Amino acid sequence: MQEISRIPKTATAAAPAGAAPKVGFVSLGCPKALVDSENILTQLRAEGYETAKSYEGADLVIVNTCGFIDAAVQESLDAIGEALAANGKVIVTGCLGAKKDAAGDDMIKKVHPKVLAVTGPHALGEVMAEVHHHLPKPHEPFLDLLPPQGVKLTPKHYAYLKISEGCNHRCSFCIIPSMRGDLVSRPIGELMLEAENLFKSGVKELLVISQDTSAYGVDVKFRSGFWNGRPIKTHMTQLTEALGQLAKQYGAWVRLHYVYPYPHVDQVIPLMGDGHVLPYLDIPMQHAHPDVLKRMKRPASGEKNLDRILAWRAMNPDLTIRSTFIAGFPGETEAEFEYLLDFLKEAQIDRLGCFAYSPVEGATANLLDNPVPEEVREERRGRVMLLQEEISRQRLQAKVGKTVRVLIDELTPSGAVGRSAADAPEIDGVVYVKKPYEPHKKLAVGQFVDVEITRADAHDLWGDS
Ligand code: SF4
């Protein structure tokens, strides 16, 4: 029997008794790599996996590599070869996993094409995702009371996927960064695994949320993570594409929230073509006048939002745009406010929320000159909502006679209430679906139905399935 010679002490500690799956572990490299190994081993043990002392006794082997100097690269490649020859099921992680050869190809995959998966360093989530994929988790009666998708407060058929925490911006009306800190993106492999678990559990609509979805990956310089053994960039576009592909496998939808109109959002619009990434963007614009946006210190305030919106609609005429605005921000003149109204007339935002500015304790906007009196703030909010009501009425009226796909949220005595691609839960309108005439046709929560729209008001639609 071939012993795993490079296995660290922690991995050989006595494992719990029972027929749990066994993982062999080879740890190479510097102390940072060693800590990564410890974290992976801790997680393995926490999930009930045992560690194996020999390649033959393992159900799968993880090799944590070093890619620093040539000798270390060679040692890592040899260790992978040894594990492949003796065991056959090998997941590779660590610095060498992120290394490319002179031709730009993945070095490990080139030398050892039979490895199951390769991740870079500091990739606990991705490594665990690969372990779960190739060696399913042992049943643990207490932990397994938790479903793989975790505890969710949403109905079974939709769920939120939080892709990052914190924010790098410092909008003058907002105190979120002081509470939650700068942007920290979650590893992409971990997100994909969570999304897969959610789809497997019956989720039909996945709502991507964060403080700034477009900035996903900025904090880690868009480094590559791994999903299903393939490298994938920690970037909004790649994440959206991968989620869309996954959603397609499960016949589900992906909806994007809190998208700032950075230039790369243009690349996301074509991903909305096949209906799995919904043609829907929630873009919190807050204002349209450049001076107000400057005082608000808004991200992407230099972008030409109107031009962008028109260009996106030209690419995908079904695109629904949701946004929020603030009326009566400190210093907002009547002319600046009317500029906002003109923008709204042109942009024809589908779904809009408007708040009268309200000073949040600790926000720097409170120190700005010329605060707008409360009654003026409220009056301006009312004017925005009145305008929006007419825009929304017209846009929804244009859907009468069309057939739209609806996800059923709730059954009612007269039929069901659902949402189309244009309606996010809780914040947008709904589609009231009449009970089908044919007795064999049944409506169910979490089901998609095609609904012919017969009526609309300024918020909701009505139709027959
Ligand atoms: S409002 Fe501005 S600072 Fe606050 S979370 Fe959003 S982008 Fe970040």
From TrEMBL:
Organism of origin = Pseudoduganella namucuonensis
Function of the protein: Catalyzes the methylthiolation of an aspartic acid residue of ribosomal protein uS12.
Question: So what family is this one in?
Answer: Belongs to the methylthiotransferase family. RimO subfamily.
Reply yes or no: does the keyword tRNA processing apply.
no
The UniProt entry, under InterPro entries, shows: Elp3/MiaA/NifB-like_rSAM (IPR006638), Methylthiotransferase (IPR005839), Methylthiotransferase_CS (IPR020612), Methylthiotransferase_N (IPR013848), Methylthiotransferase_N_sf (IPR038135), NA-bd_OB-fold (IPR012340), Ribosomal_uS12_MeSTrfase_RimO (IPR005840), rSAM (IPR007197)
Any idea where the Radical SAM core domain is? 153-394
Enumerate the Gene Ontology biological process terms.
tRNA modification
Q: How is the cofactor bound?
A: Binds 2 [4Fe-4S] clusters. One cluster is coordinated with 3 cysteines and an exchangeable S-adenosyl-L-methionine.
Cofactor field: [4Fe-4S] cluster
The entry's cellular-component GO terms read:
cytosol; ribosome
Q: Which residues form the TRAM domain?
A: 397-465
Give me the residues that bind [4Fe-4S] cluster 2, please: C167, C171, C174
Positions with a binding annotation for [4Fe-4S] cluster 1: C30, C66, C95
Q: What is this protein called?
A: Ribosomal protein uS12 methylthiotransferase RimO
Q: Where is the MTTase N-terminal domain?
A: 21-136
